[in-house]
Design goal:
2 copies of one chain form a homodimer. The first copy, chain A, is mostly helical. The interface between A and B is large, with 54 and 54 residues. Chain A binds a DNA duplex (30 and 30 nucleotides) through α1 and α3.
Chain lengths: 202, 202
DNA sequence: CGTTGCTTTGACCACTTGGTCAAATCAAGC
DNA sequence: GCTTGATTTGACCAAGTGGTCAAAGCAACG
C-alpha cells in the first residue's frame, strides 16, 4: 500500500517523477551527498515545487527505501518447497542476478543504507527480513534432511547468494575496470550456476 | 612511500591521530556525510588545528584511500604458484575473511568509494588493480591447465572471493540482524572453505 | 466571465560546512 | 629569561543546504 493515494493525474506524474529522480540521485551520491536541488532538477521541477509534493528530502528517501525492501525480497519469497530443490535455488540465484543487472540503482541505494549502518531500516531488518530468512532457512533445512541437497548452513547459503549477485551491481565500477569494460553478466551467470551446483548437488 | 615525512614527534602523533579519526568517521558516514569538525573532534583537535596538518578534508581522504588500496591487495599479491593450488586459494580466502573481521572500517571505506563510482581511484582500478588481477588470473589458469583445480573463470573466481568475504564487513549490520546478533565469522569461515573446496577440488 | 482550488515560483531564511587568518601559546636552544 | 619557530585557537567568511512563504499562474466549472 502506497502513501495517501494521489488524486489528480498531474500529482501521480510528478510524484513518480520525483521518486525516479530520487532513485537516480540517491543511488549515485548516497543520502548525504544528494541535494534536494539535484533531485528537483533531475525530476524537471523547481525545488519548492518538489517540496510541494514531498514534505522533505528524507520523506522521498524513506518512501524509496520502504518500497525497495519489498521488491528486493520478492525473489526470496518465491523460494518454495516445491519438489526440486537445486533448480529452485539456482532459479533464485538467477533472479537475483537479473535484478543486479536490470536494477543496479536499487541495489546501490540499498547497499548505501546498509553500509551506513542501516539507521533507517534496522527494525525492518531485525523484523520482517529476519523472519523471512529464518523461514526460508527452514525450507532449506528440509531439503538437506531429505537428501535433496548437500549439507550447508542455510543462512550462510543465503548470504552468499546475496553477496555474489549484488556484488555485480554494487561494485560494477570495479568489476568492469578489472575486466577492461567487458560485460560481466554472461560470465557471472555461468560461474554462479556452476559454483552452487558443485556445492549443493548431492 | 608516504607524503613528506613528518619531522617532530608531535607531528607524527597528530597526523596519525587524524588519519585514524578520518578512517573512523569516513567509514561510518561516507565522504559527503563526514565533516571536518567530526574528524577533528574524534582526533582530539580543533578544526583549524587539524587543517594545520592536512590542507583539506579531501587530502585526508585521499591519503587514507591510497594507503588502503595497497593494504587491501596484499593478500592477493601473496597468491603464488607454489605447488599446492587449492590450499593456496583457501589461504587467500581465509586471509581476506580475517581482514573483513579485523579491519571492517577499511573495507567499508573502500566499499563506499566504489559504490559512488570510484571517482578518485578509477585510474588505480584500471591500472594497478587490473594488472595484478590479470597476473593472478594467469596463475590460476596454469593450475587449471595442470589439472590441479577444476575449470573456472579465474576473474569471476577472484570476484567471488572478494564479494563473499567483504560482504561480512560491509553488510555486517544486515548479517547480524538476520542472525540475531550471533557472530557470523566462525560459520562464514567453514561455509566458504567448503564452498570453494567443492567447486575447485579436481 | 469569475470564482475556486490546485500548482508553480522567486525571494528569502537559518543553519551547516570547508576553509582562512591573525593573534596567542608553547617548547627548546641560547 | 629571551628569541625563534612550531603549534593552537577564536573569530570570521563565503558557499551550499534544507526548507518556508506569500504571491502569482492556471485549469475547470458554474
Amino acid at each position: 500500500m502506497t502513501k495517501s493515494a494521489p488524486r489528480t493525474r498531474i500529482q501521480e506524474k510528478n510524484r513518480s517523477a520525483i521518486l525516479e529522480a530520487g532513485l537516480e540521485v540517491f543511488s549515485k551520491f548516497g543520502y548525504r551527498g544528494s541535494t534536494v536541488d539535484k533531485i528537483a532538477e533531475a525530476a524537471g521541477l523547481s525545488k519548492p515545487n518538489l517540496l510541494y509534493y514531498f514534505p522533505s528530502k528524507e520523506a522521498i528517501y524513506l518512501e524509496l527505501l520502504s518500497g525497495l525492501l519489498d521488491t528486493w525480497l520478492d525473489p526470496l519469497r518465491a523460494l518454495n518447497d516445491d519438489g526440486k530443490a537445486l533448480p529452485e535455488i539456482l532459479d533464485y540465484v538467477g533472479r537475483k542476478l537479473d535484478m543486479a543487472r536490470d536494477f543496479p540503482r536499487e541495489s546501490r541505494l540499498f547497499a548505501n543504507e546498509i553500509l551506513q549502518g542501516a539507521p533507517r531500516i534496522e527494525d525492518a531488518l531485525k523484523g520482517d527480513l529476519k523472519t523471512l530468512v529464518d523461514e526460508k532457512a527452514e525450507v532449506i533445512r528440509h531439503w538437506i534432511a531429505a537428501g535433496k541437497i548437500k549439507d550447508v548452513d542455510p543462512h550462510h547459503l543465503i548470504f552468499s547468494i546475496w553477496a555474489l549477485t549484488q556484488h555485480y551491481a554494487d561494485f560494477d565500477t570495479q568489476v568492469r575496470a578489472v575486466l577492461g569494460g567487458q560485460d560481466p553478466f554472461p560470465g557471472a551467470e555461468h560461474y554462479l550456476e556452476q559454483l552452487f551446483t558443485s556445492r549443493l548437488k548431492p
